[in-house]
Amino acid sequence: MNNFLPLLFNESARELDLTAAPTKLSTMAKESAAFRYADLFAGIGGFHAVLDHAGGQCVYVSEIDREARETYLRNWVEPLPEARRPVINTDITMATPDEGPVDVPPHDVLAAGFPCQPFSKSGHQRGMEEARGTLFWNIARILEDRRPSVVLLENVRNIAGPRHTHEWDVIIQTLREIGYRVSSTPSVFSPHFLPPSLGGTPQVRDRVFILGTFVGRERALAETNVPPTVLRAPVAGWNVHDWDVEWVLDDDSSIPDLPKYRLTADETAWVNAWDDLVQRMWSARGFRLPGFPLWADAWIPERGLDPLELDALPRWKSQILVKNARFFDEHREVIRDWKRANPSFSTFPESRRKFEWQAQDTGSLWDTVMHFRPSGIRAKAPTYLPALVAITQTSIIGNRRRRLTPHEAARLQGFSRTFSLAGQRDSASYKQVGNGVAVGAAWHVFRRHVERDASDLPPRLVRAVLAAPLSPTGDALDEAASARESKSAGLGSLAS
């Protein structure tokens, strides 16, 4: 340890104590855990849930967001006896000096969901040009100094996309230079590909996992023809359409503050108006609405479109305008009667006069899952949900007439029903959960990696991981999930 000690929370896990770190680390070194791990950019503890499930002991945590750190401590640190509590740091940059040893204790596994904003479609996608993108180098600095047996990184899918080819190549080459055997092909996986018995949850959440095994620089640079750890595909014969959103929901009667999740009168009016169109289309035409975005303000005859104006627009926009004009021409009478029956529609906000149907043959908008997006109202079938995000596009459960609660969102990520958000602001809870790691997906790729690279990993680590129960998500799903899981899926196999 150098002169700058990582921050250590004392027994209350609230007051900082900079003097006890060396003693703490000495004590923890004597513990007999199967393996030890460091949890960087830890959020609310998705990786912690995975690695604790595997029999590991957390020795180091770093999370800069105060509210997320409080949630982490409440759930993972404060329940532990003092001797087993990890060192807690708030800023990883202060623990990774350019020269000298890093202020991170020795560990066997390094897990990090490093900041995704530089690579996310919702950000500016500046990659490593943005300050947060350079935090990968702090991870690399720890790997250089501590050389844990396994590195487990998670990020948005876009990190391996065409806009970030350079960044991806730099990350992979850097890991190899340090001595980690990694695949050049990203492992992309989502929790909805897993059946309930293997830790799946009903959420489409494609994430890139980067997994490496320390084999030394010479081998790492030579052994580059490494397949991805997992494939982006359902596991063990699971049919993703068998998911049911209800499996993560609470009974409405058990939600003490239920009214604040209910739709407002205005929101209900928006849904009722669009549902009226859904019903009229079924009744008059016998088929569902088309899947392209419907822009009610653009419903004019196709002959009224100006070719010159269309040519001046981006191709995607001109195509939507043409499709809407043709929709209007084909269903003019239905649309006319619908508008007469819903005179207030013209007063709706512009974004609520746009609609996208992705609910297949669902009979009513009130039977779907909805999202109120800046680009319009989107509806999908109530099987699995879109990815949770750290912004306010919370899923609306149509048949419940309400939004997904923060506790339900946490279970969608694979956290237990006992996971505590402690009554904090809903906005903070949604943000923390949306930024988190999907427990089941992370566990699956980690287990598969350890299984595949067992011969190059410490036997105690391998034994602990392979002996752990197949599902790390506990009671995140209700009993109906297990009851309805297919009997013929061959769930005893983890083959991807």
Structure description:
By secondary structure, this protein is α/β, with parallel strands linked by helices. It has 2 domains: 21-242 and 436-484, 3-Layer(aba) Sandwich (Rossmann fold); 251-404, no CATH class. Helix content is 32%, strand content 12%. The strands form 2 sheets. Strands 1, 2, 3, 4, 5, 6, 7 and 8 form an 8-stranded mixed beta sheet that branches. Helix 2 (46-53) packs across helix 13 (439-452). The radius of gyration is 25 Å and the shape is globular. Mean pLDDT is 88; it is low at 1-19, 116-133 and 490-496.
What is the correct CATH architecture of the largest domain? 3-Layer(aba) Sandwich
Structural class: alpha/beta
How big is the Rg?
25 Å
Principal-axis shape equals globular
Question: Fraction of residues in helices?
Answer: 25-40%
Order of helices and strands: HEHEHEEHEHEEEHHEHHHEEEEEHHHHH
Q: Uncertain spans, ≥5 residues at pLDDT below 50?
A: 1-19, 116-133, 490-496
Total number of helical segments? 15
Main β sheet profile: 8 strands, mixed
